[in-house]
Structures
1.
Amino acid sequence: MNRRITKFLIIANYSKKGAVEAANRVLEYIEDKGLEAKISISDEDIKDGLIREDLIKDAECAIVLGGDGTLIRAVHTIRKHPIPMVGVNFGTIGFLTDVDIEDTQSMIDRLIEGDYETEERMLLSGTVRGVMEERMIALNDIVVARSDALRLIALRISLNGQFFDEYEADGVIVSTPTGSTGYNLSAGGPVVNPKTSLLVITPISPFAMAKKSIVFDADDKVEIELMEKRKDQDDGALVSFDGYENIQLQVGDVVDIRRSKHTVTLLRFSDMNFYERLRSKIRN
């Protein structure tokens, strides 16, 4: 039996139909049991990219109502207070969100009793040398992509300080196992069990068709340099951290990516394992 949870933070995606109403029902259900809960349902609850201190202080668990994107955003907004998280699915795929909306009350009862499983997910840590003062995290992926919709960019990839390859492509995805079912999958990359520890590098629409995804050790350090392609071409690009934080890049900028020392703890209730979930989601 795990720790009994009695103090909750409820996070809802206000753009999802019914999510705010459901969040208020969750709040009422928890408070009716004599327990503590606070709620975040608007952008006003986020300050400088982080959830307000008064909302997250003392919380033992975050209940996130939305889709996978809502949970990923929540990972970023509570990164200074890495509490366990559980996702309630209002989305369409729901690889990260484990609970259907109709099962929310029984989920809360199980949290209160300590009847749940935990799952640790690795994070990426990334920065742009000389541009960013703070390293950013990513649960799914760090993507370097063109900012011009019509032109390829040139990227030099180094591993552990040594040259590895060069790509002319729309960009490149560095994915965690969690993110393998996201943009990586759409770009033709492999699906990876999220409990593993590794990195997947997948080029996006590479000019050379032989360029494929490659799997690396989780502790490999990846450097991606934006190179000049042609003198008369605007080689602008951007780096995106889970699609949540986007930083503009110039030729010569180097994105440094490595495994984060932090992880994300997801709380699980379903008896369905990853492969069963994968089969059901992809079939739908």
2.
Amino acid sequence: MTSKLTSRQRAFLKSIAVDLKPIFQIGKDSVTPENVAVIEEAFHKRELIKISVLKNCAEDPMNIAEMIAERTRSQVVQVIGKKIVLYRPDKEQPKIILPAANVRREK
């Protein structure tokens, strides 16, 4: 798994995610192995994924986000309402270049 995202990196990813449409839906069956397999496959094509949790899903979206992130070795960028954004950089050719993690401001 990648190192933990800084608040600056998370904010950068959130700004990109604003324009993303959800490409997966989690329904009443919650997270299934099939869901995880399809999401895993999507990470081969893109690094930032938005998922929608349907109203008929009784599970908490934050729990779902953490479960999927753990199973796909990705990171939760944000959970707002019933929308989840996950990030996993491509190991060979990252498309999203994150801001540096250790930038210090001059006084």
